[in-house]
Queue: 3 jobs
Job 1
Amino acid sequence: MNWKISEKSVIVTGGTSGIGLETAQELAGRGAEVIITSRAKAKAEATARKLSKGEASRVSGLELDLSNLNSIRSFVSELSKKTERVDVLINNAGTITGRRIQTADGFEYTFASNYLGPFLLTNLLLPKLEVASSSRILNLSSELYRGAKRGLDFSDLQLSKRYSPSKAYANSKLAMMLFTFELRQRFRDRGIEAFAIHPGVVKTNFGSGENSSKSMALMMKVMGPFLKSAEQGAETSVLLATSQEVDFGGNWYWSEGSPIKPSSFAQDGLAAAKLWSASEKFLRLDQ
């Protein structure tokens, strides 16, 4: 099947700044119908208006807070008014906090925002992804997932005992790797491809939020002159969203435009299935 992004409906979470903004702008410029999200509705809508340049560039903005389960469900409800299908879902948004914070739903904030929220969003959008004859899910992870050297501790996924910002972030990105691996096992035969992406170390506003890690913000500032631009960081997402399937060569983890071999614990089938089951229980999707 010939894949043309100009005929596709694309969602980019966190599409109002950084890598997400550059990804949305590039795909919209190629004729895709793009929906960007932000925790602030006004920001999502204003950015969408700036990106919309004529009939060939159709961009709309919706409110979405991936740390809030009600917000995710409301987003999916609003999305249904705009489109019946989703061809490309780019789970781009990510965060890191400087201390352990609980969400309104009682989850550790980094785990909820970087993994559990995208897990719920993806599951709720599966019917729309399956409507398309073929579709793609792009999950932004990070090479920092390798910092979770012992894998995930399923007895304490919320890090209620031994929390640190770096550990929470590494765990959330390993969870995204395992999520991607399991998605491929469950849905590839149904026309849904899934990929994990390391965009590179990119100069964005990552780590600069109100509750962000001060050490991360300092590191980003010091390393600033040596980091990739947001436009460069978006290149892998754009590549995987636009290329023909034959170009992937069966590779599912991509770093800075090229396939890279995932670690063994990122491809642990038992851990991936166990994480999926645990996530369903957290979100009560198994009832």
Job 2
Amino acid sequence: MPCDERAAVAGTLTDSMSQFLALTSAVFYGMADFVGGFATRRVALWRVTAWSMLIGVVLLIVGLFVVPAEKVVAADLLWGGLAGVMGLGGLALLYSTLAAGSMTIVAPISGVTAATLPVLFDLTGGSALTARQWLGIGLALSAVVLVGTDTGHEGVTIGIVARAVLAGAAFGVFFIALSQTSPDSGLWPLVGARVVSIPLAFAAAIVTRSAGPPAGRDLGMLAVLGSLDMSANIAVALALQLGPVGINSVLSSLYPVFTAIAAVVLLRERPTGRQIVAVTLAMAAIVALAL
């Protein structure tokens, strides 16, 4: 096989692996958001966020040995630090919003916003959007407007929709920051993220007098949450290092599908007809952006 053909095959395999990792992260993120939203209904927001992040470090340490880094430079850690700040802000907004509003509505809004920003980032970098991607952005905006103007459903207000959009924007920047790290750095950008985010989370917990360690059932729930969140972070970090930020961020942003499914099956949430249309548009937008 000629060298150029081998390179093409290798590139295709790398892209396929990155997309598989991005989809895997969507599963973990979706389940983590469900557990996080449910946990925040029982436990103070910053206790949930701080302790679940700290517990997740155990899995990150294991990952550092499984995926060794070839070379780590300061820029990788700095981009990781930025990702940590944005990820922390996004989680705090999302968990509090999920606890206050309908999971089947809040999760898709945040997912659409998180998916759209990296695509626009690619556009500013010189990448051209296809007609289907433009359609996806249009569907995304339509979904947000449709949900945002439907305040008749219990638990859904304009304020909740706005917070969901802000959470998604923070996640979008999180994806962009991680995509700027080198594949040679392995999982070390996530170390930079946790070095920044964990002290900030515990500082917020101390200020809100909710830094005490969880116990019993709450501890188990936060252990599950921390493991799911870190598994998702590991998968998406590798995906964004190996493949394009636009496509893989969109695939990772499919997490609302799994959050919504869990909410319908386990919490028996029933959105209104108008909101079902909005969720359908949101999911169609993510699929259109990914193709």
Job 3
Amino acid sequence: MDVKDFYYHLPEELIAQNPADKRDCSRLLVTDKNTGRFEDRHFYDIIDYLNEGDCLVLNNTKVISARLYGKKAGTGAACEVLLLRQRGLNKWECLVRPGKKLRVGAKIEFEGVCAEITDTLDDGEREITFDYDGDFYSLLDKIGNIPLPPYITKSTADKSRYQTVYAKTEGSAAAPTAGLHFTDELLEKIRAKGVKIAFVTLHIGIGTFRPVKVDKVEDHVMHSEWYSISKESAELINSVKQSGKRVVAVGTTSVRVLESASDEKGLLKEKEGDTAIFIYPPYKFKVVDALITNFHLPESTLIMLVSSLAGRENILRAYNHAVEERYRFFSFGDAMLIL
């Protein structure tokens, strides 16, 4: 399958630079994966499509202040570090800039905190060892910045808007953006309708967003990301599946957890570890029945994933409709519900 089969034209002005004024007032494109029909709604209408006994699965990862600006010790040259994944108590897998001048042994100073590059990893990434006192995440809040995606260049949004209202487990370099549309009030209404809610964790790293640079989809290799599903969540989701109700994943990251942690019969158990699962057509889903997601970049692994669930032609038709109707795209943009 060719990567170009997942291309669509997106005018640059439709890339959202800021979120909607209210989280749940984003627009919602509802797409039927069986008929290909779609309708235009608002996100607060999501409750109309959720039934008693269904299970909504949310990724409770919390975005950390992972972008650090510092100076190279000895020269004072400016440098930038993006934390991707924790590899030990004080060791992190990172992207660095400028890469050619930040080799093993180089030291970087961040507002009184010192770090040293201790290894070179695949694809030019680095391992960095930090020397610090106290709680590292509290330290990051003081010296780091929330790492917005590169296509968001003019945002004036408060950094809390790049965090879900249910974010809990620190460690992500990016937000699970489908969840940004939920408010506490909307979640309470969903619970009151009898919809069950389960939480999983996947810390988003570079793998989700790394561009596909090969011509054939099958040749692309995903980077691994850490995930976890508790015994409580696994048992809840299993009971929903066995009752014949639907598992509705919120975001592609929740999909990747569920499909990684299940056995061939679609049953889950308590589990944690790394996943490099790459979902593209004609993947057969074992757990996920429906999906709430944002609109994704052309030729990305994420548009391939949603095409696996809804069908490539259905997705491209829906995306072209969204462009015509001036939906807002990507992280701060509008949402899609695939039923």
